[in-house]
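S1.2 Input.
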Amino acid sequence: MRNSWARAWLAAIILLIAASAIAQGQHSRLLEVEEPVMEWLLDDTDTSGWERAATLGAPWLLVTGTILLTGIALFLEWRVGVAVVVTTLFGWLLSSVVQDIVDRPAPTDDGVLGSFPSTTIVQAGVFWGLVALMIWWVGAPKLVWQIVLELAIVATLLVSVDLILSGEQWPSDAIGSALVIAVSLITAAIVFEALPPKLPWMKPAVVQETATAL
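S1.3 Output.
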């Protein structure tokens, strides 16, 4: 399994480098495709309903949720709690580094640079992805963590669409954000898999099973 994670991580890194190079070197060509799309999306489109999706990436929710998630992880395995914090910071740092390298202007054309990738999308995607990883890590049934994973993907997509419709991000910015999220979460998954949870409520069952075997 670790080899599979390593290959996935390497593939995500390569794709992120390629996407960053395209966003930086082919910005004009991308605009030829994306500007008409943005104009079509924003032309007389009622985006008020999508504003509710911004709540899924609201700073107060992400900070509170990350603190709660970290507390639960620290209780079960302190190194995983550290991994949650490090993954969150790593996603933010990686997106900031790529933004500085690509230095791409935002669609609003107000002088703001660094829209690729979107830090907001990355932070939201990393948080909801960590929630799904935590459910998987504690040994929840496959159906449960798969549903949570799908909900995490939907939440990230909603945040992405809201930012695109509000004119803050290009559609391709969401692709770069997804690759940063992938790199961050795959790194976390490798750590999670290497550190099985110490579930207090399972200890009596383990002791009883051992005694029966003896």
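S1.4 Remarks. The two ends are 33 Å apart (CA to CA).
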